[in-house]
Amino acid sequence: MQDILIHTDAGVTTITLNRVAKKNSFTSAMYAACADALDAARDDATVRVVLFQGDATVFSAGNDIGDFLGAPPKTQEAPVFRFLRALAAFPKPIVAAVCGPAVGIGTTMLFHCDLVYAGDNAAFSMPFVNLGLCPEAGSSLLVPQMMGYHRAAEALLLGDPFMAEAALEVGLVNRVVPPTEANAVAQSQAGKLAAKPMASLLETKRLLKKGHLPEVLARIDEEAASFGRMLGAPAAQEAFTAFMEKRKPDFSKL
Ligand code: COA
């Protein structure tokens, strides 16, 4: 079974995270597949919209923690950073359907999506500090912009999860629906977008993002440099080892 499924129909490319047994955590190969799919969708004139979805129980548990230990991203060309740049700069509309846990990049990637529909079981979290890491995907810039500084600090420093209704309140999601309906609602909205004039969609998204994109891309790179360095440091190594050993991390000496 492939971990990423890609399907194009009626102008909508749907990218399905399909590693449910591991809570759709992202491996390097999955980032590479998503980055390639975005590049192909950008260059294919018949594709008008991209849709990301998981299933009704889980969107994504973030980066595969075994990969963080065994195959951490070492350069800016690593698949995760290629995916993030492709996502941030993607010129066509992106829709997401999110149910269940959306951890780490499972939440931060949503700040680059244009429309987000959440199941009422969606739980968003950015536990980078709990993992000895720092924010990624431009989230140190985009989260305070959207949520306000203090809510951003709570989400990013404490790493506390927040649920679908709170995400709706701050504007991270457009609508909260029953989990079994989220993918269909997102597909329907993507279909509406795909029926609109392409030049207007492209120009409107370009204008919406224009003021931010250079700053967002620069922040993604700055965060990536710190994140890459911190992955190998003792705090992160302890957090990852603790996760693999199914125990609580011990940061008392770090
Ligand atoms: N990397 C690798 N494996 C992961 C994973 C991750 N990020 N998240 C979950 N898994 C694996 C678990 O190890 C477990 O594997 P096993 O069945 O072989 O033991 C399986 O997926 C199911 O996970 P489990 O923790 O039992 O599910 P849950 O429903 O109790 O909890 C989460 C779901 C998402 C809350 C929990 O798995 C979690 O916190 N994951 C880590 C999230 C994280 O810190 N991600 C990194 C962000 S930068």
How is the topology of this model organized?
Blueprint lengths: L3 E6 L2 E6 L10 H16 L5 E5 L11 H6 L8 H10 L5 E5 L2 E3 L1 H4 L6 E5 L3 E3 L13 H9 L1 H10 L3 E2 H7 L4 E3 L1 H16 L3 H13 L2 H19 L2 H11 L10
Parallel strand pairs: 2-3, 3-4, 4-6, 5-7, 6-9
Antiparallel strand pairs: 1-2, 7-8
Helix pairs in contact: 1-3, 3-10, 5-6, 5-10
This protein binds coenzyme A (COA).
Task: Give a brief outline of the structure.
With 254 residues, the chain is an alpha/beta fold. It contains 11 helices and 9 strands. The protein has one domain: 2-enoyl-CoA Hydratase, Chain A, domain 1.
Could you describe the 3D structure shown?
With 254 residues, the protein is α/β, with parallel strands linked by helices. The chain has one domain: Alpha-Beta Complex (2-enoyl-CoA Hydratase, Chain A, domain 1), CATH 3.90.226.10. It is built from eleven helices and nine strands. The strands form two sheets. It has a six-stranded mixed β-sheet with strand order 1-2-3-4-6-9, with helices on both faces. It has a three-stranded mixed β-sheet with strand order 5-7-8. A hairpin with a 2-residue loop joins β1 and β2. α1 runs parallel beside α3, α3 runs antiparallel to α10 and α5 crosses α10. The chain is globular. The structure holds coenzyme A. The site of coenzyme A has 14 residues, from α2 and β5.
